[in-house]
Design a protein that fits this description.
Layout lengths: L1 E8 L19 E3 L5 H5 L5 E7 L5 E6 L13 E8 L4 E8 L8 E2 L5 E2 L2 H11 L17 E3 L11 H30 L2 H9 L7 H20 L16 H35 L3 H22 L4
Antiparallel strand pairs: 1-6, 1-9, 2-3, 3-4, 4-5, 5-6, 7-8
């Protein structure tokens, strides 16, 4: 049997003791990741799972072959044993699975395990409220951390903390590229079309504003990691540090700079869009009045004679 350790980050806007849970059970849900090519070839397009939390904060993951949950695969079920948590939202669990893995947790040829994102995303629902982003597509891109090493999540610059900061670095960079494309599209549009969108209320709810708001919301969660007591790469003594440690400091500073500067850039881009395409109430009233006059004249000229 193989002993593994999973550190799951539950996004939070406060450093807290996590003495609360929002709900106790989840419904049976479909697993879309973690399946092998062989299972797909055999027609098993998906497995299904249900998560239950025990009084001691252990999570029991039950696996089913049907959505109704009637055919339970007892040999594939496993327990995530609660071990520790950190105030910045890191939770550590232990689990034991066969050496070859199980239906959901795959072991590659190098012995490296993969923990399913679907299970992680469902577990977030026990601790995490999606206040700053959509439930679907919000933080689902963040991949879980799993290791054979029983790391200390309260140690400075621990691997789990670095993992989730790297995940956010990648996520922000990807989101910023998409937002920049939308930004360019907005400025290439004819101004009158953008004005019309703003006048009928669609402009403020379009893709650009939705993504900009999502980035700002994700930064609110990411701050709990960036500002964590354990994120202390800058505290390394450079005169006594190894080359590897110095490179770690450089990489940590690059990540922090990227995340901070991207979110500041989003604010500037949003402000520029607002300034460039803003319409005052008086201007809107003027154009509406002109439009009404044109309609009145057209109706007068083309109305059939009685």
């Amino acid at each position: 049997m193989k002993n593994l350790y999973v550190v799951l980050w539950m996004p939070t806007v406060v450093h807290t003791d996590f003495n609360w849970l929002y709900k106790q059970t989840t419904e049976v849900f479909e697993i879309s990741d973690g399946l092998t090519g062989d299972s797909l070839a055999n027609g098993d397009s998906a497995l299904f799972a249900q998560i239950n939390i025990m009084p001691n904060k252990d999570f029991v993951v039950s696996i089913f072959s049907e959505k109704e949950g009637k055919n339970k695969l007892d040999d594939e079920c496993f327990c995530l044993r609660y071990l520790d948590y950190s105030h910045n939202g890191l939770f550590k669990y232990g689990l034991t699975i066969p050496d070859e893995g199980n239906a959901l947790i795959k072991i590659d040829d190098n012995g490296k395990a993969t923990f399913p994102c679907d299970i992680y995303n469902k577990m977030k629902g026990f601790y995490h409220m999606h206040n700053y982003h959509a439930v679907d597509g919000g933080d689902s891109i963040i991949k879980p951390f799993i290791s054979e090493e029983n790391i200390d999540i309260k140690a400075d610059n621990n691997d789990a903390l670095k993992h989730y900061l790297c995940q956010y670095d990648n996520k922000f960079s990807h989101s910023f590229m998409l937002l920049s494309d939308l930004y360019e599209i907005m400025f290439k549009k004819k101004r009158i079309l953008v004005y019309l969108n703003l006048m009928i209320g669609k402009g403020k709810h379009g893709p650009f504003y939705q993504m900009a708001t999502a980035i700002k919301g994700d930064k609110t969660y990411c701050n709990t990691l960036l500002s964590s007591y354990y994120n202390r790469f800058d505290c390394i003594n450079r005169t006594e540090a190894t080359v590897e440690q110095i490179n770690e400091v450089k990489e940590a500073r690059r990540r922090s700079f990227n995340i901070e500067n991207i979110t500041r850039s989003v604010g500037i881009m949003t402000e520029r869009v607002n300034n460039h395409f803003s319409l005052s109430t008086s201007m809107i009233s003027f154009w509406i009045a002109c439009f009404a006059i044109v309609l009145s004249v057209a109706f007068f000229l083309f109305a059939p004679a009685t």
